[in-house]
Amino acid sequence: MSELGWGPGVVVLILSWAITLYTLWQMIEMHEMFPGKRFDRYHELGQAAFGENVGLYIMVPLQLLVKISACIVYMVTGGQSLKNVHDLALFRNCLGSLSEEACHGRCFHTFGNKVEENILESLTKPKALAIVANVFVVLHLLGSYQVYAMPVFDMAESVMIKKWHFRPTKVLRYSIRWTFVAATMSIAVALPYFSALLSFFGGFVFAPTTYFIPCIMWLILKKPKRFSASWCTNWSCIIVGIVLMIIAPIGGLAKLIGHIRKCAMANGVQNQDLGEEDQSFGLEDWLPITASRNANWYYSAFHNVAAIVGAGVLALPYAMSELGWGPGVLVLILSWVITLYTLWQMIEMHEMFEGQRFDRYHELGQEAFGKRLGLYIVVPLQLLVEISVCIVYMVTGGKSLKNVHDLAVGDKTCTKIKVEHFILIFASSQFVLSLLKNFNSISGVSLVAAVMSVSYSTIAWVASVEKHATDDVDYGYRKRTTSVPFAFLSALGEMAFAYAGHNVVLEIQATIPSTPENPSKQPMWKGAIVAYIIVAICYFPVALAGFWTFGNKVEENILESLTKPTPLIIVANMFVVVHLLGSYQVYAMPVFDMIESVMIKKWHFSPTRVLRFTIRWSFVAATMGVAVRLPYFSALLSFFGGFVFAPTTYFIPCIMWLILKKPKRFGASWCINWSCIILGMVLMIIAPIGGLVKLIDHLKKGDLRNIKCITT
């Protein structure tokens, strides 16, 4: 009203009430306009009016936008109302500058054009009543959010089950709903601008679905007489609604841009003040990678062990069964040697220029390939590596928990508990661990993870040796769901996945202090050597002993082949779970750092806990959702191992070394690097093919089971 004025404001208010009451009546009338048929959803009525395909394409996007936008606005309003309660109770406004006397000086009166966007922000006295009113708003929105979210859940679940043949389980339901809530929360946190969101969404998506689409459907389905009262009323509503849809979002968008610019300027001043007044609170001191530089060589050792020894070691016997003795041993040794060499290169390049440290993989990539090209090459690959590891760790953690359950109570008991349920259990812990600030704050978790990885690897190979190979063990190639050539290719990806530490090595080295007398590469390399010795102790016995004992009948995860002694195997699986709890964070932390850095530096967000928690919980929810949908261990290893691990681990460090160090042509260094580049590129091309074929086979089998389940 303050933006429209008395005359236009009253006219628009009355017209809106009258038009929306009329279109609401139309919707109710059309619900059962054909005998024996009910249109239970908006898009079904749209399909009856506009046709099956066109109706779907018109109604579903609009309806989804309406409901999603309502949920976002309700998130913002709920948060603002809670803040109002807080501010009124503590006698201060959002800037902390409003005194108690100023709060008490306000009273109920007409505010005119000084009214706030939310009327309850203008009302502060009587204080108790204003607090109660804001609490009532929060309680109302708790229910109203679900009223708008429920049709979105219905639509998403319907598509997932009917079209994509998912099983109608609680896991599916919770994954969809939690992801939606996390997404709307993130947008609300990023754009907490109440009136700007109302005006933009009100014009762009609410005007069509509320003001004129019901009238269009009425004209199509009811076919009123031309120029009759009904015909004229509907066309008047359509014209008003279309004009509203065109002009209202312009004002909303302008207001939204104004808010964002204002916020960006305020954050820019804030960041400048931080830099000028107190360097200890600078951005680099806030980001998780560079927040603390007091690590040492043994931090490097157990961070690297936690990063390298993970889900990949459990799949090595299975990879050996797909490769055979000769190729398997050769690939195992070559992978260890090449990745140790490229790890050394990364450590050397961290401080190759005096006074400059490349604390992140993409910073080194920008130095080698150029600011823009380096970013485009390294960042997508590094993100894919770290996200894929987190997804695989979700799957592995869930499967290990299921192994514990099956060994403890029997795999025929509680058959309704699927691996997806255990993935959700594992994921719940990551929501808590993701609250840890930086790499050094997870050092204790990494140490425990490193100890666990050595422990379960030792149990795996000792139990395999103790079991002994049976007389009928077969070491030849076995036909599985995937043909032998594709299985061979996928095994190369599984081997590559086992060596993943390069993607966080610079980030780990960034936590070590450095001086000209004692550069960080010395303790870092010392820790890396210790880590790689531990890697060899874990990898070679597990791969060789596991394949020797079970031959080509070994399971994708060696611990699934081992069932006795039961208590020891249960302990081994629990060690895997504990290890992955820490290793997930080792890989997630650079992702958090990258996203938080972009949000603060480029988009001028304030470096707050709200921002940090929103980013991290959204990431955990996303990786959990993918893991629940694709719980196929070896297929994920082989596809990701070839497609994203081979570049970042096997040959990109060599390319950067050639560009930055410029070794003599045809010299030893030049030849070694080019050999690694060629091997890595071949691996990147052929390994994902096997992984993709295996993944498709798994999905086909899964879809058949889902269809059978739905039919039953």
UniProtKB/TrEMBL annotation:
<feature type="transmembrane region" description="Helical">
    <location>
        <begin position="128"/>
        <end position="153"/>
    </location>
</feature>
<feature type="transmembrane region" description="Helical">
    <location>
        <begin position="373"/>
        <end position="396"/>
    </location>
</feature>
<feature type="domain" description="Amino acid transporter transmembrane">
    <location>
        <begin position="1"/>
        <end position="90"/>
    </location>
</feature>
<feature type="transmembrane region" description="Helical">
    <location>
        <begin position="442"/>
        <end position="463"/>
    </location>
</feature>
<dbReference type="InterPro" id="IPR013057">
    <property type="entry name" value="AA_transpt_TM"/>
</dbReference>
<dbReference type="Pfam" id="PF01490">
    <property type="entry name" value="Aa_trans"/>
</dbReference>
<feature type="transmembrane region" description="Helical">
    <location>
        <begin position="323"/>
        <end position="344"/>
    </location>
</feature>
<dbReference type="GO" id="GO:0005886">
    <property type="term" value="C:plasma membrane"/>
</dbReference>
<feature type="transmembrane region" description="Helical">
    <location>
        <begin position="639"/>
        <end position="660"/>
    </location>
</feature>
<feature type="transmembrane region" description="Helical">
    <location>
        <begin position="6"/>
        <end position="25"/>
    </location>
</feature>
<feature type="transmembrane region" description="Helical">
    <location>
        <begin position="174"/>
        <end position="194"/>
    </location>
</feature>
<feature type="transmembrane region" description="Helical">
    <location>
        <begin position="297"/>
        <end position="316"/>
    </location>
</feature>
<feature type="transmembrane region" description="Helical">
    <location>
        <begin position="529"/>
        <end position="548"/>
    </location>
</feature>
<feature type="transmembrane region" description="Helical">
    <location>
        <begin position="200"/>
        <end position="221"/>
    </location>
</feature>
<keyword id="KW-0029">Amino-acid transport</keyword>
<feature type="transmembrane region" description="Helical">
    <location>
        <begin position="417"/>
        <end position="436"/>
    </location>
</feature>
<comment type="similarity">
    <text>Belongs to the amino acid/polyamine transporter 2 family. Amino acid/auxin permease (AAAP) (TC 2.A.18.2) subfamily.</text>
</comment>
<feature type="transmembrane region" description="Helical">
    <location>
        <begin position="568"/>
        <end position="592"/>
    </location>
</feature>
<keyword id="KW-1003">Cell membrane</keyword>
<keyword id="KW-0813">Transport</keyword>
<feature type="transmembrane region" description="Helical">
    <location>
        <begin position="54"/>
        <end position="76"/>
    </location>
</feature>
<keyword id="KW-0812">Transmembrane</keyword>
<keyword id="KW-0472">Membrane</keyword>
<feature type="domain" description="Amino acid transporter transmembrane">
    <location>
        <begin position="107"/>
        <end position="251"/>
    </location>
</feature>
<feature type="domain" description="Amino acid transporter transmembrane">
    <location>
        <begin position="294"/>
        <end position="690"/>
    </location>
</feature>
<dbReference type="GO" id="GO:0015171">
    <property type="term" value="F:amino acid transmembrane transporter activity"/>
</dbReference>
<feature type="transmembrane region" description="Helical">
    <location>
        <begin position="233"/>
        <end position="252"/>
    </location>
</feature>
<protein>
    <recommendedName>
        <fullName>Amino acid transporter transmembrane domain-containing protein</fullName>
    </recommendedName>
</protein>
<feature type="transmembrane region" description="Helical">
    <location>
        <begin position="613"/>
        <end position="633"/>
    </location>
</feature>
<feature type="transmembrane region" description="Helical">
    <location>
        <begin position="672"/>
        <end position="696"/>
    </location>
</feature>
<keyword id="KW-1133">Transmembrane helix</keyword>
